[in-house]
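Hi everyone,

Forwarding the result from last night's run.
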Amino acid sequence: MGNKLSIVCITYNQGLFIRQALNSFLMQKTNFPFEIIIGDDCSIDATPVIIKEYAQKYPEIIKPILREENIGATQNFVDTLSRVKTKYLAICEGDDYWTDPYKLQKQVDFLEAHPEFSACFHPVKVIWENGEQADSIYPDKKTMTNLRNKVTLKELLKQNLIQTNSIVYRWRFSDCDVKNYFPNGILPSDWYLHLLHAQVGDIAYLPDCMGVYRRNSGGIWYDTNPQKTNLHLKHGVREIKFYMNVWKNIANRSEEYWNQILPGITNIMNIYYKNGNIEKLQEIKSLYPNIFEQELKTDKDILFKALEQTKKKYKKYKKLFNIFLYISISLLFMFAISISLILKMN
């Protein structure tokens, strides 16, 4: 009998945590077979060694993908997802873990009994590795009670209430390539995957807390700034790509969603401007010129002048570099000829 469910786990430099994650997968008690597909994005710590160790011990269950070059979190995620051909899919990144040995069984049983739902999820315990905030449960019970214990596409467009390691999907891409539905260079990619499933059915909430989500300095969404300024500086362009692709591909270019995302896009552009990140603004201008022209809250003449100065500096430095390179090669060539002549004379 083939596998009924796949667990997808992506990793990058998570040697401190990956054993706990893998053990929490392997402890699952189910009446169906499952596989574990691990996509490691060329980690430089002990992560690949640990994955190999587990794969050798459980070769029928663990299917490792050990990349020889770093391709980035989103590409690693989507490529690993493209290997899934089972009816159901669960996700847990390498620094998170599950706490209930019947988690997968409970979620699959629910989806088998409720074919109208495209997925189901549960609350998780959020722990801060450095203790800077108190542990909490996400999402909280009151929020989900107000939503009648389910998330619709409309609600999911407003905010992501689903922690990645809590979801089990009725995998809608088992007979097609998920890559064809995923835009390049977007973040957050897990939210986009939730939305793709919410297109074909509501997502149910199960009340049992069955996993732990770690907040640590190595996490992609870690930021101690309440305004998330550092995150926007780091991921802002990919966040804007996410919003624009959701607007076009999932929200059907609705005016309501546009009005919802526009303040966030404007905020990201202004953060780049205030921090002098002209290069990122150039990228946004080339991708979305209308948004750039209409929504960036600053003096465009000053900004365009800065952009032109940046281009001129680049051309100047490129020219100087080429001259330096030409002179260096010429000197090396002359040196080689001189050495050759000296050797012949001797």
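The chain has a mean pLDDT of 88.

Cheers,
N.
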